[in-house]
Amino acid sequence: MAMRLSWVALGASVVALWTSVAVAEQPVRPLPKVGGCPLEYYSSGSYCVPSKSGNTRGAIEKSGNSCPLGFYSSGNYCLSSPSNDREAIQKTGNSCPLGWFSSGSYCVKSR
Fold it and tell me: Residue 20 above 70 pLDDT?
């Protein structure tokens, strides 16, 4: 019984640690090319591809003149700031999905 409880406690600790580490950051992935590529991305056909430097931040296409909370402008894109640990998507309609809040033309994931 004592062995079973220690494994259960260990499993709960691992889950708690994973939950605290797993924050929703903007994914670093290829983006459709709109003009020039943002900082730390390079052109590859019709895409902007993240560099392999390991310092590349997630980006989204810019909608309008401003970027969402936690992001800064880089050409036609919004790059996630180094201290940002949130994900953003372009807003469709007048509201954001449950668990997200409005930031200009975007929805940003709540913590």
Answer: no
